Amino acid sequence: MLEKPQNLCESVTLEKRLDQKKTHWAEKVYLSEACKERFLMQSDLPELTDNEFFMAGLAELSDGYEIERECTTLHTLLFSLEGKGSLTTEDMEYQLLPNTLTILPAGLPFRFELSEPNGHWKMAWVLLEKTEKWHPFAANGQRVEFTQLSEQVWSVMNLLHSEIGGRSSYRKLFASELSRLLLGTTTLAPSNSVLRVQSVFNEIESQLQHNWTVKGIAEKCYLSTEQVNRITKKLYQCSTQQRLITLRMEKAVDLLHYREWSIGMVAQRLGYADPFNFTHRFRQYHGCSPREYRKRLGY
Questions:
Q1: Looking at the DSSP assignment, which residues form a beta bridge with residue 62?
Q2: Is-contact 142 172, C-beta < 8 A?
Q3: What is the pLDDT at residue 191?
Q4: Of 86, 87, 156, 293, whose CB neighbour count within 10 A is largest?
Q5: Based on C-alpha coordinates, what's the Rg of the chain?
Q6: Angle at 39 between CA 184 and CA 47, to 5 degrees
Q7: Given a cut of 90, is residue 76 above it in pLDDT?
Q8: Which residues contact 101 (CB under 8 A, 6 or more apart)?
Q9: What is the distance between the alpha carbons of residues 269 and 252, in angstroms, rounded to a whole number?
Q10: Model pTM?
Q11: What's the CA angle centered on 83, arms 150 and 171, to 5 degrees?
Q12: What is the pLDDT of residues 236-276, one digit of tens each?
């Protein structure tokens, strides 16, 4: 199911046997104030339940982090992206390097933490229900494997998190794709490039006031402008520039309903420093000026 990426050295050693078996365990959770975590929970995302996920999270950890469990009723997966963590089981120690998947089946003790007290570790974690669907993860015990899926898992989970309180159809799609990624059916999942473009457009939609450019969007996606245009055309049936205009013009209609906001304020909120440029673009898109649109509303 998981293959070692070609860019990782074959001689990397992930595990080391303990001189003495660890027998004393405690229930412990410690996060420093510098740690950042975003949670994906069933109460916010009911689609997790449909796909037999219990909970998940996106973690950027530094200056101290430790989780120790005596026994769990859930399977735990850790996808490492950057930095380094460490894992201790009853008889082994593991390095949790970028592009590794840590698999911790239910019922066994473990401790994972920052590899160095002042270090950094970026990872995504998933808690799986103890069901037949996830049995492949439990079959071979606690282990750490190389994987090519860490960035894709992070991207899908980031998209899921962005849809909390949002579009249920998107949540269903992303939860289903996360499930397929974990089960290894990557041929049914979108490419990593597509996920990055989707993720950046989700960010753009929440920050339309920024000076977004096609070149800047491409750089944020780690793609060329040609690649971004091609993927955007496939996703939204328009160019990257037109997608950006569409997001702004659709949002403009919503904002013009706020009587207390002047047209200049709406323009600035949507990233137009010049209100005349905003008015020109609005007329092109909607067939009337912002002022005329407000008159139609009776304002």
A1: 120
A2: no
A3: 55
A4: 156
A5: 23
A6: 55
A7: yes
A8: 2, 77, 78, 79, 80, 144, 145, 146, 147, 149, 150
A9: 9
A10: 0.62
A11: 35
A12: 899 999 999 999 999 999 999 998 899 999 999 999 999 99
